[in-house]
Amino acid sequence: MYLVVIGWMYVVLMMSVAEATNTTGSVLGAIVTFFLYGLLPVALVVYLMRTPQRRKAIKAREAAELQARVAAESGDPDAGGHAPGAAEDDRIASVRKEP
C-alpha cells in the first residue's frame, strides 16, 4: 500500500514542478496542486486504510485493561505483585531472631 502512496506523491510532485516551471504557471498554483492532488487525498486514503488496524489495537488495549481489572478484583493475594505483609492465618507463628 505504501508503494502506491509513494508513487502517487512522486507523480504529484512532478505535476507541481511542471506547474511551477511552466511559463503560464505559478508557484502558488504548484503549491495548490501539491496539496489538492497529493497531500489531502493521500492522507484520507491512508487514514481509511488503517481503520481496521486502529480498531484491532483499541480492542486489544480494552482486553488488556479488562484482564488487569479482573486480576485486581480477584481475591488472589499475589495479583497485586506486592510481598505479603503478615501471615493470613493466626496459627502460623512469625519468624523471629532467637534471644
Q: Which key terms come to mind for this protein?
A:
3 helices; 99 residues; single chain; mainly alpha; rod-shaped
Question: How would you characterize the overall build of this protein?
Answer:
The chain is mainly alpha-helical and 99 residues long. Helix content is 67%, strand content 0%. Helix 1 runs antiparallel to helix 2 (27-49). The longest helix has 23 residues, at 27-49. The protein is rod-shaped, with a radius of gyration of 31 Å. The termini are far apart.
List the helices and strands and how they pair.
Blueprint: H1 2-21, H2 27-49, H3 51-73
Helix pairs in contact: 1-2
In short:
The chain is mainly alpha-helical and 99 residues long. It has helices at 2-21, 27-49, 51-73. Helix 1 (2-21) packs antiparallel against helix 2.
Mean pLDDT: 83
Tell me which oligomeric state these chains represent: single chain
pLDDT < 50 stretches: none
- Helix segment tally: 3
Structural class by SSE content: mainly alpha
The helicity comes to 55-70%
User: What about the largest sheet?
Assistant: none
N-end to C-end Cα span:
75 Å
The 3D shape can be described as: rod-shaped
Q: Approximately how much beta-strand content do the residues carry? A: under 5%
> How many runs of DSSP E, i.e. beta strands?
0
> H/E element string?
HHH
Radius of gyration: 31 Å
